[in-house]
């Protein structure tokens, strides 16, 4: 079945629900045609063909009995790109080659959509994903940031521990692959560091880590920015404080999300911050301290927000649909 010209491509994966459905629904109500592309289903269930000659080039894609060409796509929502699901029976070398070629083919497909409006452009997402760059720019726009040390030197980590009076957390600069997530929750999520953890920290020389002062929390905020609009959910820190440093960790009982109004000054800094990255969308984490200070932690250019729409009825999907069609 062929769709009309007003197609909005939703790039995601087959395990994605709720947020993707909400955005698709909002787009349909506004008269656009959402086309969901589950990246993990390419190449086994998605057919992609690219044509190039001297007069023009175009791509066509078929999935779930629907077919579109790149010329029909007016906007792209970049939600998630996952690795192809290929049979484990393939010989590892052949499997690696298939994954590599599939990714390269998809990269060519994304490139063919450069005239469409993206929320957000892949290069901007990559640029904004560097957490040290985030801290630098956050500081430049006037946000308060935690004292931070990144090092592969055990002695430096021990000195920093003393400097922050033993109130220290560790985190990674990059997300682990999904295959590593299952058994690596200590590294994947922000974790408290104890003095004994640093006794034998020589393994740092193989892999640098991020260490930050532990900021006292009254509330943790998830702030969703969409094209100048700001949506906020707050969690009371005392609800999950007992040895739980990161509310995103599986099994952490976070209690109820609450509405929260950011001060105008914080909103202005937020808009300046997102403007420096050229992003239309981002999920940001802040801590509100007991003394009323807003401390910037990080931004995820493709971060989660479904819980805020679900629990607080915040119209984030509608704002994303507006951004895609603007």
From TrEMBL:
GO terms for biological process: SOS response. GO terms for cellular component: cytoplasm. One of its GO terms (molecular function) is ATP binding. Keywords: ATP-binding, Nucleotide-binding. InterPro entries: ATP-grasp, ATP_grasp_MvdC, MvdD-like_ATPgrasp. Residues 135-325 form the ATP-grasp domain. PROSITE patterns: ATP_GRASP (PS50975). This is MvdC family ATP-grasp ribosomal peptide maturase. The lineage of its organism: Bacteria, Bacillati, Cyanobacteriota, Cyanophyceae, Nostocales.
